Amino acid sequence: MTSNIEAPLRRAEREPERTVVPPVVVVENLSKTYASGFHALKNIDLEIRRGEIFALLGPNGAGKTTLISIICGLVNASEGRVLADGFDIVSDYREARSRIGLVPQELTNEAFETVWATVSFSRGLFGKPPDPEHIERVLKSLTLWDKRNNKLITLSGGMKRRVLIAKALSHEPKILFLDEPTAGVDVELRREMWEVVRRLRDSGVTIILTTHYIEEAEEMADRIGVINHGEIILVEEKRELMRKLGSKQLTLHLRHPLETVPERLAGYRLELAAGGKELIYHYDANLVGDHDEGGDEASGIAALLSDLDAAGIRFKDLHTKQSSLEEIFVSLVRERR
C-alpha cells in the first residue's frame, strides 16, 4: 500500500521540472558619467526577457540612446556590467556583439551600393562566412527581394528602413535593437513596419525598441520601460500598466442640468461639466469608489447609477474613457521631475 507521503513523491518524479528561461539581456548597476560631469545613466538595473518586444520610452535626453549604445558596445560604461545572451559585453565582446543587431534611424553611407552588396557586407563584418541563402531569406522576409540589385540611393524612405533591418539581421542576431524604427514615416508604412517587427519576434528574435510614438508601444510592446533623467522609473507588463495606472472616466449626459452635486452623492467625488449638463465619475479597476467595498468595477458603477436614480437624477446617454498610454507616460514623467 502506498503511503500518503510516497504518492506525491512518485508523482513529482514523473512530472518534468519546469525550466526557468534566463533573460537574454541583463543590465546591472549601470552608470555613465561623461567627462563634462553629466550623469547620463544612474544605477540602471534591467532584464529583457527572451522573445519579447520591449519598448523603452523616455523624453529627449532621458538616456535611451546612451543605454542602447552601451549594450551594443558603442559606448563604454562608467560602472556596472551588461550580459547579452549570457556573454559580458566587455570581457566577451565578440561573442556578445555577434548576438546583437542594431537598427539606427538612418543610413549614413553606402548610397551607391546595391541592397544585396550592403547586406552581405554587413554579415562579413561579424566574421560570418558568406551565406547567400540566409541573405535571400532575410530580403524576402522584408519584401526586399525584388530590390536586391537596386542601389540604395534609388530606394524610398520605407525601403531604406527595411534595408537597415536587413543589415542588422545579416549575421543572425538573437537580440535586435530598433532606434526610432518608424520616425518620420507615414501611418501606412508605420503599420507595415509593425508587422515586420512582429514577424521577427515570432521567429524568435528579441526586440528592444525606442520610440517617440506612444501609439507604437501601445500597439506592439509586451512590456514597457520608462526612463527619465538617466533612471529607470518603471518596468511593467503593458496590460498591467494600463490596468494599474490607466484611470477610467464615466461621463453621464443628463436630461436636466444640475447646479450642484447632491450631498448624498459626495462619496463618489463627481464632477459637473458642460454647464451642469454632464456628470463625470473617475474610477479605476482596483478602487472604484467609497461605495464599493469589494473594489469591483461593475458593481461600483451599478451602485452609482442606483444612487443617481434614488436622487431623481436622470441621464440620456453615457460613455466611458480609459487613459491612454501616452497620458500615463506624461503623468509618470511629470511626477519624477
Automatic annotation (TrEMBL):
<dbReference type="Pfam" id="PF00005">
    <property type="entry name" value="ABC_tran"/>
</dbReference>
<dbReference type="InterPro" id="IPR027417">
    <property type="entry name" value="P-loop_NTPase"/>
</dbReference>
<dbReference type="InterPro" id="IPR017871">
    <property type="entry name" value="ABC_transporter-like_CS"/>
</dbReference>
<protein>
    <submittedName>
        <fullName>ABC transporter ATP-binding protein</fullName>
    </submittedName>
</protein>
<dbReference type="InterPro" id="IPR050763">
    <property type="entry name" value="ABC_transporter_ATP-binding"/>
</dbReference>
<keyword id="KW-0067">ATP-binding</keyword>
<feature type="domain" description="ABC transporter">
    <location>
        <begin position="25"/>
        <end position="254"/>
    </location>
</feature>
<keyword id="KW-0813">Transport</keyword>
<dbReference type="InterPro" id="IPR003439">
    <property type="entry name" value="ABC_transporter-like_ATP-bd"/>
</dbReference>
<dbReference type="InterPro" id="IPR003593">
    <property type="entry name" value="AAA+_ATPase"/>
</dbReference>
<dbReference type="GO" id="GO:0005524">
    <property type="term" value="F:ATP binding"/>
</dbReference>
<keyword id="KW-0547">Nucleotide-binding</keyword>
